[in-house]
Amino acid sequence: MNVDTIKALGSIDPRTAYGVVPTTPEPSSGGFQDQLLRAFEKVDSLQSVARDMTTDMISGKVTETHDVMIAARESQLAFELLLEVRNKLLESYQEIMRTQV
Questions:
Q1: Can you state the angle between helices 32-59 and 65-98, rounded to 10 degrees?
Q2: Does 94 score more than 60 pLDDT?
Q3: pLDDT tens per residue across span 9-35
Q4: pTM for this structure?
Q5: Contact assessment for residue 65 and residue 53, using Cβ atoms and an 8 Å cutoff
Q6: Counting runs of H as helices and runs of E as strands, what totals does the chain give?
Q7: Best CA proximity match to 15, nearest among 60, 97, 74
Q8: Distance (Å, rounded) from C-alpha 43 to C-alpha 36?
Q9: Residue 71: partners with Cβ closer than 8 Å, 6 or more residues away
């Protein structure tokens, strides 16, 4: 049994099989604002991929339900992470504002 063929199967991205092109990661550069904007864009792209895959499943184009569920869960987790980062930033700002000079 050839192990290389098994490894090749694990590298298949289901989004490319259905015509949804995943975004390529950008090189890490810039400041905090750039990183935050990239995170917003990434969450937005994940949500649009999940929305498109759900629409395709409803219309009958996508037959693999688990791929749609994985994309939806990935989108949800990314949004929850971004929400927690926002909450920590807000808490940090409030803590700074409470400090006495």
A1: 150
A2: yes
A3: 556 666 666 666 666 665 656 788 899
A4: 0.65
A5: no
A6: 4, 0
A7: 74
A8: 11
A9: 15, 46, 49, 50, 53
Give me the count of residues in the chain. 101
* Residue range 41-82, pLDDT digits in tens: 999 999 999 999 999 999 988 778 999 999 999 999 999 999
Q: How many structural domains compose the chain? A: 1
Q: Which two tokens stand for residue 22?
A: 């995943």
Evaluate the CA torsion angle 79, 84, 87, 88 in order and state its sign. negative
* Contact between residue 65 and residue 57 where contact means Cβ atoms under 8 Å apart: yes
Please give the residue range of the domain that contains residue 92: 3-21+28-98
Q: What is the largest CA-CA distance in the chain?
A: 70
